[in-house]
Each structure stands twice: as C-alpha cells, then as structure tokens.
Write a structure and sequence with these properties.
CATH superfamily of the largest domain: Nucleic acid-binding proteins
CATH class of the largest domain: Mainly Beta
Strand content: 15-25%
Distance between the termini: 18 Å
Helix content: 25-40%
Strand order of the largest sheet: 1-5-6-4-3-2
Largest sheet: 6 strands, mixed
Number of helices: 8
Number of strands: 6
Radius of gyration: 21 Å
Order of helices and strands: HHHHHHEEEEHEEH
Shape: globular
Number of domains: 2
C-alpha cells in the first residue's frame, strides 16, 4: 500500500496510524482511497474528518444511502465521500477527487404549473440583505410536514431528571462548503440546542461518553424554544460514535 504520510515540507494533521484507522473504519483499503482520506484530513483537520465518519456510520446504521441511479446501496466509504464533499470548497474537491468525473444529474421535464411562484431578486445579495426577501415570503408561508435534525458533539454538563436527561450543546461553525451564491453571515452566530433525551436512551450512552474520545449522536425533532432562546431537540434516537462502530457487522470476507 502506498505510504499515506504527508510529504516532509507539509506538517501532518494526523499520524499515519490515525489515517489508516479512518480507512479501516470505512472499510476502504485501496491505496487511492487512503490517499484521498489523507488529503481530506489535510483540508478539514482530524476532528472534522472524524465527525464526518460518525455521520456516515449513522446514515449506514439508519438504512444507508443509495447510489445515484438507485440500483444499490453505497458502501460505508461511499457514504463518507458523499458527505465530505459538503465540507469542501470546489478547489478542494477538485484536488482530492481529481481522478473522478463530477456527477451531473439528468434534468427531467417538469410541469411548471406545479412550481411555486418565483419572486425576482438581485443576482447576488449579502446575508444582511436577506430580511426583505424573507418578509416578502412570510405573507403565505409553506407548510412543513416532517422535521428531523442530527446533532454530533460532546456535552460538558447534564441534568438527569426522573424520566429524562437534559443537556445543552452550542454550535459556532464553521459552516460546510455551500453552493455558490448562497448568502452566509461573516461570523456564524452561536446556536444553542437544549436536548431532551429519554431515561432509557441516556442510560445506553452515558457510560460510553466517559471516554473522552467518543462523540454523542442525537437524532430528533426540533422546535424553537423562545423562552430560553434555544432550539429544543427531542431525541428519537441516541447513540455514540464508538457504539456505532462496535455494533457494525464485520465486513464479509471476499
């Protein structure tokens, strides 16, 4: 296998063993995939890369992700590479995945009468110019029929009640790479989530979180809690990165 260590003129963001461990977790043993993981760690850092690995494990456990034509499920490594593109800017994607041709989805004819009316806007706006656009849309807002959010992080303190555990997690960015033209704030404001986890679910993860290397993964429904100025998340599924890894069935031998 090609040695994935960074060249000596570029300080490493992870050891060779750490990069190989990520590849092993993703069941990616091809030398090209290992080199791509190495470049991803260089671009994003070890902590963010491990967060993406946790996301991929979570998606795989929840039923996986189909390939573009829907004929089969992606491998765990394939899920990881799909997610990680959201964290990379176009230049980084080109550098890391330069041997692959970008997928261009086929655009099918659409009944234009089914599309919502478009309100004209300037070609490009800043984050500070978003308010009048939102105001113009709020006269007749659409309706959400389902909401789901996934949080990955580590709590510092928890409040264990008789039937549930409450904890808070704060997100301050950075934002992943987004499509060109979307307005974003110069500085990502802190968003605090109040997470409500049922007694039984918390018991399953509490011991695992004594390991400082583990990460809590919560999937649930979110609402705005205006009183506490937080986003309330009611957990429907709770696990950790290491529990997911331990529960994954071994990859069948060739």
């Amino acid at each position: 296998m090609t040695d994935p260590s960074p060249p000596p003129d570029q300080p490493p963001t992870a050891t060779k063993a750490e990069i190989l461990q990520i590849a092993k977790t993703l069941h990616e043993h091809d030398s090209l995939a290992v080199r791509q993981i190495q470049r991803i760690v260089r671009a994003l850092g070890l902590a963010t890369t491990e967060t993406v690995v946790a996301e991929a494990l979570h998606i795989e456990e929840a039923g996986g992700l189909l390939v573009a034509n829907g004929t089969r499920r992606r491998t765990l490594g394939g899920i990881f590479f799909v997610i990680v593109r959201q964290y990379l800017n176009p230049e980084q994607q080109q550098s890391i995945f330069r041997r692959f041709v970008a997928y261009k989805p086929q655009v099918q004819a659409t009944d234009q009468s089914l599309l919502p009316p478009v309100i004209p806007a300037p070609p490009s706006i800043t984050w500070n110019e978003r308010e009048p656009l939102i105001a113009s849309l709020q006269t007749t807002t659409g309706k959400v029929t389902s909401v789901k959010v996934t949080l990955i992080g580590r709590p510092t303190r928890v409040s264990e009640q008789a039937q549930f555990t409450l904890l808070t997690l704060t997100y301050t960015g950075p934002l992943p790479s987004l499509p060109k033209g979307i307005p974003v704030p110069v500085k990502v404001p802190a968003t605090t989530y109040s997470v409500y986890i049922g007694k039984k679910q918390w018991k399953q993860v509490a011991e695992a979180l004594t390991n400082p290397e583990d990460m809590l993964i919560v999937e649930g429904v979110q609402i705005l809690d205006a009183t506490t100025k937080t986003i309330a998340v009611f957990a429907t599924k709770t696990t950790t990165k290491l529990i997911q890894q331990a529960n994954r069935p071994p990859k069948p031998s060739a």
